[in-house]
Amino acid sequence: MADREQPYDPYIPSGSAPGAAGPGNARTAALQAQIDDTVGVMRENINKVADRGDKIDALGGKADNLVRSTREFRRGANKVRKDMWWKDMKMRMCLIVGIIILLVVIIVPIGNFAFAI
User: Fold this and answer.
1) DSSP states of 56-104 as a string?
2) Using an 8 Å Cβ cutoff, are 15 and 5 in contact?
3) Is 102's pLDDT higher than 90?
């Protein structure tokens, strides 16, 4: 069994054994280390993108809540504005009626006095 030939591996240069350390193996090891580093960086990036997607989903939910709150605030503000307008109109009408009554109280006795003379 010891003289059995090793199976063909395209990543091992021909004529060298899998355990032999040569200049080609050092280059291959360096390239493999770079590939492993790149794979690690890509995995981190994928995890960050997934986290960012979760944050974007949460932000979308918050934006929907903000839109809903804005609509409720606008309705409330319009109701308050209309109520205040009616209150202002009632006050103006009361003032106008009060002034008319005051003028009638002042003018009618003067008119009766003028006719009496």
Assistant:
1) HHHHHHHHHHHHHHHHHHHHHHHHHHHHHHHHHHHHHHHHHHHHHHHHH
2) no
3) yes
